[in-house]
Amino acid sequence: MNLHMREPVVETLGVLETAALLRELTAGLIAVDDFDEALTALVRIARDAVPGVSWCGFTALRPGEPAGVAASDARLAGLDDLRHGPDSPAMDAIRRREMVLCEDLGRERRWPDWTPRARELGVRGVISAPVDVDEQVIGAINLYAGAPEVLTTQHQLTAMLLAEHAGLLLAAVRDRERRAARAGELDPSVLGDGVVGQAIGVIMTQRGCPAEEALEVLRSAASSLSIPLREVAERLVSTVSRPRDS
To answer: Where does the ANTAR domain lie (predicted)?
Structure first.
């Protein structure tokens, strides 16, 4: 079963083209604060910009969550999904922390379960490059060719630069995502009933500290207990409001 793909080309990106790719990638991800949305943009940009690449996917490993997957073509998403088995180019790249290249899947023996599925979908070559995002997220960007001998060792330099740049941009997205989540905790709708403000006031009184420090105390407690900020505030206010025995 072959999917629609561009005509194969063998040239790789030159210096100017590589700079343009990284610039487009930066522009596409710089304002995004959702990690999954960023992955979707990344695979689309890489597919369109790298010669010889017919499809692109990303495999992301996050602690306590299923492996994340993004694919430029939904029909190929299973090739990046570790639920179909850990024996794959992406997992090899992640485990070994180095680039994995197969120029022709017709001669490939490393992934006996993965390779037939890939070939059935029209994939004939693959490069997987490890991507380090932050201390909690690692992954691999996977470049797929629809013809053999299209992806060569020359493409590895482009893939390496793409992976390094993507790691930096995705780390920034993760940071914006965390900051947005914190800001959401202070949404006016949350503060409307005053419980968070009351809790901040209690901590300020008890510790003699400013409001910013009191808020950080609440946030730290919420993180340690793995419960929402508002619930921590409610528990604190309830405790200090409880009448004491005479």
So the answer is: 176-237
How many angstroms separate the CA atoms of 46 and 157, rounded?
14
- Amino acid identity, residue 148? P
pLDDT tens track for 182-232:
655 555 554 445 788 888 878 888 888 877 788 888 888 888 888 888 888
Length of the chain: 246
Q: Is residue 90 within 8 Å of residue 71, measured between CB atoms?
A: no
User: Rounded to whole angstroms, how far apart are CA atoms 58 and 65?
Assistant: 16
- Per-domain residue ranges for the chain? 15-177, 186-238
Do the beta carbons of residue 138 and residue 61 sit within 8 Å? Answer: yes
3-state secondary structure 60-119: EECCCCCCEEEECCHHHHHHHCHHHCCCCHHHHHHHHCCCEEECCHHHCCCCCCHHHHHH
Cα separation of the two ends of the chain: 80
CA distance 181 to 8: 43
At 2, phi and psi to the nearest 5? -100, 135
Cβ neighbour number for residue 139 with a 10 Å cutoff = 29
**pLDDT tens-digit readout, 163-189:** 999 999 999 998 888 776 665 555 555
Q: Are 66 and 72 in contact (CB under 8 A)?
A: no
Percentage of residues of the chain with pLDDT beyond 70: 87
CA atoms within 13 A on the CB side of 12: 15
